Amino acid sequence: MPEAVINGFRMYYETHGSGQPLVMIHGGLGGGEGCAQTMEHHAEALAGSFQVISYDRRAAGRSETPSDGYSIPNYAEDLRLLLDHLGVGPAHILGSSAGGPIALQFALEYPERTLSLLLINTMTYVQESEREVRQRELDEIKQALADKGKDAAVEAGLNSRWPGMRESDPAQFARLKAINLEQFDGIVNTIQSYLDIRDSLESRLRELTMPSMIVHGDADSRIDIACGLQLHQGIAGSVFHVIPGAEHGLLTIEARRTRGLIEEFLAETAAQLSI
């Protein structure tokens, strides 16, 4: 799959199918597998109707880990420049989990390039209870780094994010550990960039006028459903769907059901916009 130097770093990206562009921004706070799981579950199914575009964010998956550029506004710029590189104009913008604030920022800065906005199990990261979780994660990484070094810090982070993986899938654990070791500094900077959001997104939600949909699981232990409801209340005219009993990670653990909501919403949006 192709790579290009976008906004100062080597970015891995994928495109599938043809039709209206649908950008899918993956979650995670650096490291990990980037867009791989999202594309595994959705690229083929959606490519019949859309030009599906996804990419590994800076310091994630197969993309490079640059030394700087870690801020939500700059992540939106990464996406804008990728779409310029691909010659893509207005697109449907989907952000999952930590991809949500990037989608929000892009829609706020480039409304003329945002056909619709889809926010999947995400938040604005201004809620104090949720910010405390991110801060603990960062503090634990820094403490493990100070006490035992980078190797131990990476293992602690993986064990926190994927409990039991070391025993159940040692090969996958080893692969993710190697990725996270390589991208360690970028992971720390990425987490900090989300802590730096403060109220820059929350205070601007009323500016969003494009068709918008929020989807959340009511058993989400990572990002509470109240965060999804807050987005729905802040974005005028938005549609809010709750998936009963669903945990975090709807694009993978509830892939078919979530994709059905995406397809239904985009069909309605196309009719509404006459595209």
Helix content: 40-55%
Overall pLDDT metric: 93
Task: Determine the structural class based on helices, strands and strand pairing.
Answer: alpha/beta
What best-fitting shape do the alpha-carbon axes yield? globular
Report the order of strands and helices.
Answer: EEEHEHEHEHHHHHEHEHH
Largest sheet: 8 strands, mixed
Taking pLDDT < 50 over at least 5 consecutive residues as the criterion, the unreliable ranges are: none
- Total strands: the figure is 8
Q: Distance between termini?
A: 29 Å
In which order are the strands of the major sheet placed? 1-2-4-3-5-6-7-8
Strand content: 15-25%
Question: What are the main properties of this structure?
Answer:
275 residues, alpha/beta, eight-stranded mixed sheet, 11 helices, 48% helix
Short overview:
Helices cover 48% and strands 17% of the residues. It has helices at residues 36-46, 72-86, 100-109, 128-148, 150-161, 165-168, 170-182, 184-195, 225-234, 250-253, 255-273; strands spanning 3-6, 9-16, 20-25, 50-55, 91-96, 114-120, 212-217, 239-243.
Structure, explained:
- The chain has 275 residues and is of the alpha/beta class.
- It is 48% helix and 17% strand.
- It has an eight-stranded mixed beta sheet, with helices on both faces.
- Strand 1 (3-6) and strand 2 form a beta hairpin.
- The two termini are 29 Å apart.
- The mean pLDDT is 93.
